[in-house]
Amino acid sequence: MKNLIVLKVITAVLIISIIFSLFSCMNEDRIEVPPVKLEHVNGDYKGRLITVQGEIRGEKVVDFKIKKDTLTFPEFPIKEIVKAVVKDPIKTEAAITAMGKVKYKLNYTSVVNAEKNWVELTFVPKELELQIPVDGVSKKTIVTLVTKQKGYFAGLDHTLRFVLAAEKITVNGTVLSPFDAIYYNFPYCIKI
Predict the structure, then answer these.
(1) pLDDT by residue (tens digit) across 8-39?
(2) The pTM is what?
(3) Where are the membrane-spanning stretches (predicted)?
(4) What distance in Å separates the CA atoms of residue 162 and residue 67, rounded to the nearest whole number?
(5) d(CA 64, CA 138)
(6) C-alpha distances in Å from residue 1, one per residue of 6, 14, 179
(7) Which of 15, 121, 140, 156 could, after both became Cys, cross-link 151 (CB 3.0–4.6 A)?
(8) Taking a C-beta distance cutoff of 8 angstroms, is the pair 131, 98 a contact?
(9) Neighbours of 144 (CB within 10 A)
(10) What pLDDT digit, counting tens, does each position of 143-156 carry?
């Protein structure tokens, strides 16, 4: 009988010790996130770009800069846009080469969340105007870019995430139809 009581006491002490150990470990695992400020968003970035148009998906790495309230692409990815306008693959590559680098500026407003651990960016895209050369003639192309969700800059790892979409393309005043929207997903962009 005494052995049974001693065994129960030892078991109870062991269970209580395990519970306190688990609670102390849970408190140690919490990482203190330093507060983020709007200025932390500014800088040079390298980002993973996933482009999706219908069933076609592509990936590449792109560079861009953020300064105050503007995100600037020194070389906006136009390959999918040109492919939609110029159907011939050989002429598409020739047009992209002739156009060179296309710069695009994306304006935004930003707000720090209440916990001060991330910045929310609301983008205000402008139309992208291109002159696409095909067979010695330039096709005036206007691309309507939109954002359907906000972008986020995480204070913990200083990364940025956002999505753009080319929703409509107008060529020489005529809306391109049929046209599948082009989604430019930036799931993970790091400051360099």
Answers:
(1) 656 655 566 666 666 665 555 556 667 888 89
(2) 0.79
(3) 5-23
(4) 16
(5) 27
(6) 9, 20, 83
(7) 121
(8) no
(9) 16
(10) 999 998 999 998 88
